[in-house]
Design a protein that fits this description.
mainly beta, 5-stranded antiparallel β-sheet, 27 strands, disordered N terminus, single chain, SMP-30/CGR1_Lactonase, Neuraminidase, 6-blade_b-propeller_TolB-like, about 350 residues, signal, Gluconolactonase
Length: about 350
């Protein structure tokens, strides 16, 4: 038995003992090992062909929203079990928050506080120093938001987030409800002024993951419209790019790339401007011109990813259906100088 398969078996057994495998959370293609697929020579400089890909946990029902914390731990959402989990090297995975108000995406603000896109509260909320959660924004005018999905913080501290309807459409991903905003939108929220701006992104029908290029010159938005009906090939499953002005205005809308199989969900940009996106088969990586460099195929439908660094080694933590994976990589996440 290979070293990876031995580790996979141990991790799977641990996950079953700690949390149990709920219905629908089995591996998408049981028995398939992760594989690094190099499609362009540049990809070999990002992920080693023989990378030691580890499954750290296998007991979730729908894993999403990973976030590396400053202490080296990683939290992520197990949405359908309404909890947030935490992993630390050398420790057993445990619950970090329950009930979690069906959190999806997470990020940190400039003060190191955790921000969450909450399906349950239909809001963006923040964990303050006392450990309590505060709703920052939950209304577009007088209308309740749909179900905030993913979020990023820009160099000025403003929160950019997406608001599709998945969290109110899917009975296991929130408390239900109906959309009253008139659509699925991308927003920018300024915590200092409490100003909420609905952004114009007409090529994006169902916004999901979002990320900035280095120095915030470009904003990438995943359009997961086909996630509403995976049998309808006419629905969008692409990533759209926008130029970002000094005032935060978006311009020069363009289709960056189409993602297949499945839909793009979470995405991140590395310090060289390459775009890393989830898909039904695993991770796919595109250069700034939209050309695919390679893939990391995983045995489960992949939802989201987070960069991290520990002892000089860069990693990707990847959430996929029931699992949390760790992949060693050779590059870090794009950064911007804070205003």
């Amino acid at each position: 038995m290979s070293r990876w398969l031995q580790q996979f078996s141990r991790s799977l057994c641990t996950g079953l003992l700690m949390a149990g495998m709920g219905a629908g959370s089995a591996l998408a293609s049981s028995g398939d090992a992760p594989e690094v697929v190099v499609e362009s020579p540049e990809f070999a400089d990002l992920v080693d062909k023989g990378a030691d890909i580890r499954q750290l946990y296998a007991g979730a029902k729908w894993s999403e929203g990973p976030l590396a914390l400053p202490d080296g731990s990683v939290i992520w959402s197990d949405i359908k079990n309404n909890r947030v989990m935490i992993w630390r090297e050398g420790e057993e995975v445990r619950e970090w928050l329950r009930p979690a108000q069906f959190h999806n995406g997470h990020t940190l603000d400039h003060d190191g506080r955790v921000l969450a896109a909450s399906h349950g509260k239909r809001a963006v909320e923040r964990q303050n120093e006392d450990g309590k959660w505060e709703v920052l924004v939950d209304l577009d005018g007088e209308n309740k938001l749909n179900s905030p999905n993913d979020l990023v913080v820009d160099r000025r501290g403003r929160i950019w987030f997406t608001d599709p309807t998945f969290g109110i459409d899917e009975p296991e991903e929130g408390y239900g409800g109906r959309s009253v905003t008139g659509g699925e939108y991308v927003y920018r929220f300024d915590p200092d002024s409490s100003e909420l701006t609905r952004l114009s992104t007409p090529a994006v029908k169902t916004p999901n993951g979002l990320a900035f290029a280095p120095n915030e010159t470009t904003l990438y938005i995943a359009d997961s419209e086909q996630g509403h009906d995976r049998e309808d090939a006419s629905l969008n499953h692409h990533i759209v790019a926008y130029d970002v002005g000094d005032d935060g205005a978006l311009s020069n809308e363009r289709i960056f790339t189409e993602v297949s199989p499945g839909v793009p969900d979470g995405l991140k940009v590395d310090e060289h401007g390459n775009v890393w996106t989830s898909s039904d088969s695993g991770l796919q990586v595109f250069n700034p011109e939209g050309q695919r460099l390679g893939r990391v195929d995983l045995p489960e439908r992949t939802a989201n990813l987070a960069f991290a660094e520990h002892d000089g080694q860069h990693y990707l933590f990847v959430t996929a259906t029931s699992s949390l994976y760790r992949i060693p990589v050779s590059i870090g996440e794009a950064r911007s100088e804070r205003d």
